[in-house]
Every structure is written in C-alpha cells, then in structure tokens.
Design brief:
single chain; 541 residues; alpha/beta; TIM Barrel; elongated; transmembrane helix
C-alpha cells in the first residue's frame, strides 16, 4: 500500500475529481488518511488492460477500413439499407479509446502526485461495459468476417517496426509512475512482483525485432517494379461503378485493366452488373417496382436501358470522394446508363486497356448459353483477344477452343503437376503470403490481388513483388511513386539498438530520480505524521 500522499496542490485536487468523481481537496484526503489499497491497484491494472484492449480494437478498425465497402454492400443486400458503416465503426471506437486513455492518464498523474487511486464505481461499471462491447466486436469479427484476421497479420508487416518503437516509448514513459509507486509502497512482495513484470515486458520488447519481418525491409535496389493497377468496376470512387464513365475515369488513373462483372439479359445481351439484383445501383424500384426483386437476368435489354445507373451514386455517396466531384462530373454521373459488354469492349479497345470480367450468376441453368453469347460478342467486337482476361471457370475448355487468344486468369493457386501452365492468378490479398508472391514471380506467373485500397497495403504488396492489384482507389495509388517506407536491414538494426539503449538509460534515470525524490519527501512526511498524531491525541483528551 502507498504511503499517505505528499502533494497538496490544486493540480492534484483537479485530478482527483474526475477520477474519483468527488470534489475533495488533497488536504481532506490527507486528513482522511486514504491510501491506495491492493483493491485499488487491481482496478488500475484492469484499467490498463482495458486501455490496451480498446487500442487493439482501434488498430483492427483502421485495418479493416480497406475492406469496409464490401461490408456496406453486404448490409445493403441483407437489409436494403445503405449507410457509411465505417463511421458507425470508428466513432464509438474513438469514444471508447479516448475514455480509457483519459482515465489512464489521470491515474498515472495521480500516482506521480502521490494521490490515492480511488476509482469511482461509475467508472468501474463503464470499464466493464467497454470490455464487453469490444469483446463482442472481436467475436463478431471472428465469426462473420474471419478473413480480416489475415488482414491484421499482413498489416503487421507494414506497422510492426513502428508498433515496436511506440510500445518501447510507451513502456519507457511508464517507468516514472511505476518508480513512484514502488518507492511509496510498503509491500515488498508487490514491489518485487511489479519490478519482475515490468522487466520481463521490457526485455520482450527489446528483443521483439528478432520476430518482426517485413518485405519492405530491403535495399532500395532490390525493390520490385510498381504493381500495375486494375480498376475494380472501373473507378468507383470517381464514378458510378460498372459504367462507361467509370471506365474512362479508370483510364485517366492509368489503370492497365478494367475489371467488371457481366450478366446476360433475358433476350441475350451481355451487360455490366455486379449484383444479382438491380436495387443497389439503379432506380429499378421506381421504374419497375413489382419486378425490383427479380434477378438481373430476368430483364430484357430494352427494360435495362430505361434504368438510371448513376443517380444512386450521387444520392448514397458510397465513398467520401463523391462530395468533391465537379459539377460536370456530377452531371455526367447522373446521366449514366447500364452499358452493354459490346460498349465496354469498344471503349477498352479505343483506350488500349485490357478488360477482365466474371460471368454471373455461375449457378444459372442457362450458364453455358451465357458463355457462348459472351464469347460471340467478344469475337465480333474486334478487340485484340490478348486484351481480354477471362475469369469464369465454367466451360473454360470450350472458351479455349473457340477463342484461343484469350488470356485465362485463375481464381486459385496453381496445383502440383498442372497439365497446362497457369500464367495468371487472381486472388484475395489475404490468400497469398509474401513468400508465395516472390516464388510465383520467379516462376513468371502474374499475380493479381484484390481489393487493395489503402496505401499501407499497396506498399507491402509492392515490396513483396506482386504483379498487379485490383483497387477502388486508383486515383490514390496512381500518385504513389514509392512505398510508404523502405528501410535497409542495416538501418533498421541500427534504429533498433539505439532506441533500446536510449530507453534503458531513461528507465534507469527515472528510477534513480524517483528514489532521490522519495528520500527527500520522507522526513517531511514523518514530521507531518507526528504532528497530526499529537493533534489527534489532544483532541481525544
């Protein structure tokens, strides 16, 4: 337990109020003889753990922003409700992190001022609720979106070195209040326990770089070429997805491939559409309210041409970039219609970019006819077949026979003993490690990973040697001339050693300084205790 506090300043009083939820001066605390008990220490430890827990969730929340548009689309398909769910995620997360951070800072300052850590019961309840909320969020993430755990592991390749430096800095600063508490406490067992835990934590942090790996720790001359950009449904942050405007905006972003999705209308016209229903990206509910829930393939081409495929983009604002569109772009977006595959092929041919597409829905009873109709449009379009990247797996052998020049892209990793060499693969970025990417590159296999929107993720894949990435943010990745960071191994080693040595010296200084302060304080505290004891005896007499 801590000795009675030796600080009676107004600052200490102001710190006590929000932490203990009581307006009580330090002098009154001293007359009460309040001390920091083991029970109070356990609540401080719980507070520290809650802070780390919420900080970990904030990290995850920032990481999964790369894929959050997919989550918004999923919610719309389930509930027909469009909302920027990233704000729903980030705002409560920021509140929880801020709350636990403020309480932790108050506790550390109180300890440095020698005040008792009497956490109010309201804060205790709120901290328990915080743990339950964050635990529920982590559980939901693990059940419904398990692939994001892979995203978190990949993110450590981009943030690992900096997280290590931040952790060392934070734990180093913690030495001051820890030393203050250790020199005030009377319990030898507690003192030894805290020292052992702190030393073990610092030793683990000092040696952590031995387990940190990142493809961006390399020499400058070893950096692979910048990955090519594949426009995911065009440039969906700048124009309505799967429209000709989106294709042209993607061309302006220097993409080399326009990635899209193809369906076939009831009268046999292939057209661009991702969802099986038309409700998200058209005004079908206003034009054909009784047929809005039907599959896209149930509409004929004449009906599809009556639909507005652009106004939803301005109304729902699927990305924040919609707000910054020019008046001309807004007008053009509002005039977009569903394009046919023939129109898209003509635009790709004129822009000299490739087109890669999936043919949906794969489980349709007339899927073979869809393949044949789509192939017929491709062959009649006059586009060079090497500019067509074929993704669908169904009836692939027929495609190879009818259009031998088409490039085939596989949505899987290569098998051992492949009959035909796999030259192009298209996979989620979570499904390939840096080592696999390097091996495929050595074997001259083109690797395209999707969907990559954040610069940190693009940097990691760039350093790994990926051939291309599918992205919603082509306008952002276009401007990147270099990975966010690139460190030679020798430089990183030097930073590691310098930071660890500097941290060690600061910790030693903190303990020595706090020991001197505690020796100076004890005589004054002893005289005060004697005086208070005499006054108390006189009052009892």
């Amino acid at each position: 337990m801590a000795d009675p506090p030796g600080c009676c300043s107004t600052c200490a009083t102001c710190l006590l109020c929000p932490y203990s939820c009581q307006w009580i001066t330090a002098k009154k605390e001293k007359r009460k003889g309040l001390r920091t008990t083991k029970y109070d220490c356990s609540w401080f430890l719980f507070l520290f753990c809650v802070f780390l827990f919420t900080l970990a969730w904030l990290y995850f929340a920032i990481i999964i922003l790369n894929d959050f548009h997919n989550f918004s689309e999923f919610i719309f398909r389930q509930r027909k409700l469009w909302l920027d769910w990233s704000l729903v995620l980030l705002i409560p997360t920021a509140v929880l992190v801020s709350y636990s951070s403020v309480l932790l800072v108050l506790a550390l300052c109180l300890q440095l001022c020698g005040q008792p850590l009497k956490l109010h019961w309201v804060h205790k309840i709120l901290l328990i609720l915080t743990v339950l909320v964050v635990a529920t969020a982590f559980t939901g993430l693990g059940i419904k979106w398990a692939e994001e755990w892979k995203s978190a592991r990949i993110s450590l390749q981009a943030t690992g070195p900096f997280l290590h430096l931040g952790a060392v800095g934070g734990m180093t600063l913690l030495a001051w209040p820890l030393a203050s508490f250790i020199y005030r406490t009377r319990s030898t067992g507690l003192r030894v326990f805290l020292l052992l835990v702190y030393c073990a934590a610092m030793l683990a942090l000092y040696l952590a770089p031995l387990g940190i790996t990142s493809p961006c720790i390399m020499e400058e001359n070893q950096l692979p070429p910048k990955p090519a950009l594949v426009g995911h449904r065009g440039a969906p942050m700048l124009a309505p997805e799967n429209t000709l405007m989106s294709l042209h905006k993607a061309v302006d972003c220097d993409v080399q491939v326009f990635e899209t999705d193809v369906m076939v209308s009831a009268d046999g016209v292939p057209f661009l559409m991702h969802d099986e229903e038309l409700t998200r990206t058209t005004n079908v509910q206003a034009v054909f309210p009784e047929r809005a829930a039907l599959n896209s393939t149930a509409f004929n081409w004449t009906d599809l041409q009556r639909l507005d495929a652009g106004s939803w983009f301005l109304e729902r604002r699927p990305f924040p970039t919609v707000q910054s569109l020019s008046p001309g772009d807004r007008k053009e977006a509002a005039e977009q219609r569903i394009p046919s595959l023939e129109q898209a092929l003509e635009a790709a041919k004129q822009s000299n970019i490739s087109i890669m597409f999936d043919l949906r829905p794969e489980n349709h009873s007339d899927y073979q006819n869809f393949v044949n109709v789509t192939l017929g449009v491709i062959l009649q379009s006059g586009i060079p077949l090497q500019q067509v990247l074929w993704l669908p797996d169904g009836f692939r052998e027929d495609v190879k026979q009818q259009a031998p020049g088409v490039q085939h892209v596989y949505g899987r990793k290569r098998f051992e003993n492949e009959k035909e060499p796999v030259l192009h693969v298209n996979l989620p970025y979570q499904d390939m490690s840096s080592e696999e990417i390097r091996q495929y590159r050595q074997d001259n296999i083109s690797v395209n990973l999707y969907v990559v929107n954040q610069p940190w993720l693009f940097s990691v894949l760039w350093c790994s040697g990926v051939s291309s990435v599918t992205t919603n943010a082509c306008q952002v990745l276009k401007e990147m001339k270099h990975p966010i960071w690139l460190l030679p191994n020798s430089t990183y080693f030097m930073i590691w050693i310098v930071v660890d040595c500097f941290s060690f010296l600061i910790i030693i200084w903190a303990f020595v300084l706090m020991k001197k302060c505690s020796h100076r304080r004890r005589p004054a505290e002893s005289e005060t205790d004697v005086l208070l004891t005499k006054i108390n005896s006189l009052m009892q007499e």
